[in-house]
Design brief:
The protein is α+β, with helices and mostly antiparallel strands. It has seven helices and 28 strands. It has two domains: about 170 residues, no CATH class; about 300 residues, Methylamine Dehydrogenase, Chain H (7 Propeller). It is about 25% helix and about 30% strand. The longest helix has 27 residues.
């Protein structure tokens, strides 16, 4: 390394690593990733590791890069390289927090190079941690001014600090922790709960509790989205399971899941990520299966299916209590069928920006609709002809990552619940049929209705590491009911 400035920066980066602030940051990173996130999940523990890692990671990168350059004849200025590395880290962190595609590519590259899979979560709100970079740079500059010779003082402590920092970064990049990814509650037995657990290696699968969460039994190694049957008790469906050939499995408690879906993988064209199951609860139940945007209908309990060729992907669907009346949201439009789905007509161009990720219709009023459109929650009282804005999500999540859950309480016609995103936000509640909304509680990643008025909701914490059951009228309290699920790291 022939350029003196580079050697000075190398020395400063090693000195910064043994500064108490860096040592504290390393300890915080390890403690938060391996204990606090699971013992006390919150917005703070969700961001703490990002702050800590961004503080000392540039020192590790600088030490490594400048050490490599020492074997070359590069005359690159150390100070310029330091700025370049800080900017590169900031750009990489920003990209990984806002782009799913970039995150998937990064994870794949790391896995190919190291043989290890890392866990990264796309969450634009994490960008607040970027404030750690300028603070880190100030400390680097301060240590650089105090250095008067190459990094020969306290070489052992500096080497140990570099090793500790590398271990801290590697330890926080292990496989994703076990988590609950989907939940459902039996529509007739509020104590019969379903939970899908993933990333536990030999314990992935669908778990069932028949006592309200006290005990759990794994009934299948299949994962995916679980949906309780609204017509039959002790029956649930698993959507988009990796092991499913058809995309849809049916589970009757006490038996193995059975393939019932219509579309063979590799045959259907995947139009969108939208996959859902709805049931028209009429004298003769009708199944509506949206498989990656393609709508299939079965009127004989999934024995046969009909592909409804709409020519455009379906993003959400909602059967009403009126026999034959069904609403669906496509790309930019609300459409309606009055004959159970055989024929469809366009109702209106939907307002707002972004796709419809949730559509719900009131059980007593087939003209009252609620829709999550982009970052907006909208309401219609005339069957979708006109819409009013009732709630606007004001966070930093880009509209393309917006996702809503909308639940209308079947036991209380005035009450509705909604949740934006998956782990970023607290739920909101309405006591006037969705006209006004109030935020309550802490952030959640999933929400489901039960049939127990004393315990109306089942939920998952922001990290998927705790299954919660609500007790009392909101805000009420939350009780953990998933201690016997395999969620320990």
């Amino acid at each position: 390394m022939s350029e003196p400035g580079a050697r000075a920066v190398w020395s400063a980066s090693l000195a910064a690593l043994i500064h108490p602030a860096s040592l504290v940051a390393m300890a915080v990173l390890l403690l938060n990733d391996h204990f606090l996130k699971y013992a006390a999940p919150s917005w703070l523990t969700g961001k703490l590791s990002d702050f800590a890692g961004l503080f000392f990671a540039p020192y590790v990168c600088l030490a490594a890069v400048l050490a490599l350059l020492s074997f070359t004849k590069s005359r690159l200025s150390g100070s310029r390289l330091a700025l370049a590395i800080y900017f590169a880290i900031g750009i990489l962190f920003t990209t990984l927090k806002i782009s799913t595609g970039a995150t998937d590519l990064f994870v794949s590259v790391v896995a190919a190079l190291t043989g290890q899979w890392i866990s990264l979560v796309v969450d634009p709100s994490d960008l607040i941690a970027l404030v750690a970079l300028p603070v880190s740079y100030v400390l680097l500059a301060r240590e650089g001014r105090q250095e008067r010779q190459p990094a020969r003082r306290r070489p052992l402590s500096r080497a140990l600090a570099l090793c500790a920092a590398t271990v801290a970064i590697a330890a926080t990049s292990g496989p994703p922790p076990p988590s609950v990814t989907s939940i459902a509650v039996d529509r007739f037995d509020g104590n019969l709960l379903y939970a899908v657990v993933e990333d536990t290696q030999d314990k992935d699968g669908l778990y069932v509790s028949s006592d309200g969460g006290g005990g759990w039994v794994r009934v299948s190694t299949t994962t995916g989205q679980v949906v309780a049957d609204p017509v039959q008790t002790r029956t649930a469906y698993i959507l988009d399971a990796p092991t499913s050939e058809s995309g849809l499995l049916r589970l009757r408690v006490g038996t193995r899941p059975a393939e019932i879906g219509p579309a063979k993988r590799g045959v259907s064209t995947y139009l969108t990520d939208a996959t859902s199951l709805s049931v028209g609860q009429w004298p003769s139940p009708v199944l509506y299966f949206v498989f990656h945007g393609v709508l299939w209908i079965s009127e004989d309990g999934a024995v046969t299916w009909q592909n409804i060729g709409l020519g455009e992907p379906v993003h959400a669907l909602a059967p009403t209590a009126t026999p034959g009346l069904v609403y669906a949201a496509t790309y930019g439009y609300l459409i309606r069928s009055t004959d159970g789905g055989r024929a469809w007509t366009h109702v209106v161009v939907l307002p707002g920006t972004g796709d419809v990720t949730a559509l719900a219709v009131h059980k007593d009023d087939p003209l009252l609709l609620l829709a999550g459109i982009g970052k907006e929650l909208r309401r219609s009282t005339d069957g979708g002809l006109t819409w009013s804005l009732t709630l606007q999500y004001g966070g930093t999540t880009p509209v393309e990552f917006a996702h809503w859950t909308i639940l209308l309480d079947p036991q209380d016609p005035e009450r509705a619940y909604a949740l934006f995103g998956s782990g970023c936000c607290a739920p909101v509640i309405s006591t006037d049929r969705g006209l006004t909304w109030t935020e309550w509680g802490d952030a959640l990643s999933a929400l489901a209705l039960t049939t127990d008025r004393r315990s109306p909701l089942l939920a998952v914490d922001p990290f998927g590491t705790s299954l919660l059951r609500h007790v009392g009228t909101p805000p009420g309290t939350w009780e953990r009911v998933g201690e016997k699920l395999p969620l320990g790291r």
